[in-house]
Design goal:
Blueprint (H helix, E strand, L loop, with lengths): L10 E2 L3 E5 L4 E6 L5 E6 L9 E3 L2 E5 L4 E6 L5 E6 L9 E3 L2 E5 L4 E6 L5 E6 L17 E3 L2 E5 L4 E6 L5 E6 L9 E3 L2 E6 L3 E6 L5 E6 L11
Antiparallel strand pairs: 1-2, 2-3, 3-4, 5-6, 6-7, 7-8, 9-10, 10-11, 11-12, 13-14, 14-15, 15-16, 17-18, 18-19, 19-20
Length: 220
């Protein structure tokens, strides 16, 4: 039994599986036997999917804390406090950890130490931005970070400084996590649409209406 239930995707290493629980713990299980190898208390519900990278596990929680843990022991190596609940999955590229929170703020941390490199708050900005929440897992490519928001927009941030490069409105919640391939970003909107956009400009290359609403994430 893994606590009070699971609402996230597991991360895998060669020998272990890592998953967060509503009981406020992150668990490591043997992939071969299913035996719990360690569990680390993080103090609040874990809805964020875990990220395994180079011997560490990275996890967010409803308290807004993001942690790096030793993948073999579960020992907490560093902790960062965000402004809102972290339900968004985490991603990494070029020595940085990217994620969004429920205060509509996007972050980049130094993955080795948890040092804040930049944060960008998207609520209350001009040009029609409105407050929303980041539930989508970001995708980093081409010097940009792409992520959906419940304000109905797909955001493209400059990876080096957090500046908003462009946004594209879907007109409904953007829960899905974008896929990036061959110069295109693929994303879904809750109203039931899937689109391919230019990764550089955000211009729509094609659009397809689905039979029903969706919170699914596209893959390539």
């Amino acid at each position: 039994m893994l606590g009070a239930g699971l609402a996230n995707e597991a991360a895998l290493s060669k020998t272990m599986m890592y998953v967060g629980s509503h009981d406020g713990h992150v668990y490591a299980l043997s992939r071969k036997t299913g035996k719990i190898i360690w569990k680390t208390q993080v103090g609040s519900e874990v809805e964020c999917s875990q990220l395994y990278y180079r011997g560490r596990v990275y996890s967010g929680s409803h308290s807004g804390q993001v942690r790096a843990m030793d993948a073999k022991t579960g020992h907490i190596l560093w902790t960062f406090q965000a402004s809102g609940e972290v339900k968004s999955g985490l991603s990494t590229a070029d020595g940085r950890l990217y994620f969004g929170d429920y205060s509509s703020t996007m972050y980049a941390l130094r993955i080795s130490s948890g040092e804040l490199l930049w944060r960008t708050h998207t609520a209350g900005l001009s040009s029609g931005y409105r407050s929303g929440s980041f539930y989508s897992t970001p995708s980093a490519a081409y010097g940009r970070v792409y992520i959906g928001n419940t304000d109905g927009k797909l955001y493209s941030f400059v990876a080096s400084n957090g500046q908003i490069a462009w946004t594209h409105s879907f007109g409904s919640w953007v829960y899905g996590s974008p896929a990036v391939h061959n110069g295109l970003v693929f994303e879904t909107g809750y109203a039931g649409v899937v689109e391919a956009l230019s990764a550089r400009t955000g211009n729509v290359q094609w659009q397809h209406t689905l039979p029903y609403r969706t919170t699914a994430s596209p893959t390539v």
